[in-house]
Amino acid sequence: PGHATPQCGAHRGGRVRGSGAVGGCLLGSAGHPSRLVPRRTLSPVTLIAEDLLLLLLDDQSGKPNTSHLDLALGGAVLVDLALEGLVEVASHGSLVGSAKLRRAPGAMAGDRILAGALGAVAENKPAQRLVVKVGKGLLEPLAERQLRRGVLDRREEKVLGLVKRTRWPSR
């Protein structure tokens, strides 16, 4: 009470706030270090999930470098939703349960991928379950975006002449 929240570049305890996304004021001041404020940037920006996909795909083979790609991409999309102010924490997690999320009042996503993920967010749904649900099937649409941008190529293959799979090597 009665304490002003430091602004960008303001000193806290005699030192400059961190240079990360929150400390560097990319997200703005939220009054508490655990609360994020929607970022205000110029479009077009890529989703964190798109950037993460590029990091997790092998440049040459186009094969994911993790067996948990769906989980990683689902988590990244939830972070994107939070940064855009489209979801809120309904209740904080504990040692035995994950935090629960809900849609922010009036939340509408302009991005097709974020809109699909936002549709999966039900009132007070555990974030751990949302990561799994949101992450399923994200590889294809995220990789397609990078294909249209000229970052990735699409390579169709058949395994043992039977099973079709798609790889996404860098151009």
Break the fold down into its secondary structure elements and pairings.
Layout: E1 11-12, E2 15-16, H1 48-56, H2 69-83, E3 87-91, E4 100-103, H3 112-120, E5 125-126, H4 127-135, H5 139-148, E6 155-159, E7 163-167
Antiparallel strand pairs: 1-2, 3-4, 4-5, 6-7
Helix pairs in contact: 1-2, 1-5, 2-3, 2-4
Throw out a few tags for this protein.
disordered N terminus, 171 residues, alpha+beta, single chain, two-stranded antiparallel ribbon, 5 helices, three-stranded antiparallel β-sheet
Verbal overview:
Helices cover 30% and strands 15% of the residues. The chain is of the alpha+beta class. The chain has a three-stranded antiparallel sheet. It has a two-stranded antiparallel ribbon with strand order 1-2. A two-stranded antiparallel sheet has the order 6-7. Helix 2 (69-83) crosses helix 3 (112-120). The protein is elongated and about 45 Å long.
| Average pLDDT score | 77
Spatial arrangement of strands, main beta sheet: 3-4-5
- What form results from the Cα inertia axes? elongated
User: What is the terminal-to-terminal distance?
Assistant: 55 Å
Largest sheet: 3 strands, antiparallel
Number of DSSP helical runs? 5
Based on secondary structure, the structural category is alpha+beta
Count of strand segments: 7
- Runs with pLDDT <50, length 5+? 1-43
Order of helices and strands: EEHHEEHEHHEE
Report the radius of gyration as a whole number of Å. Answer: 19 Å
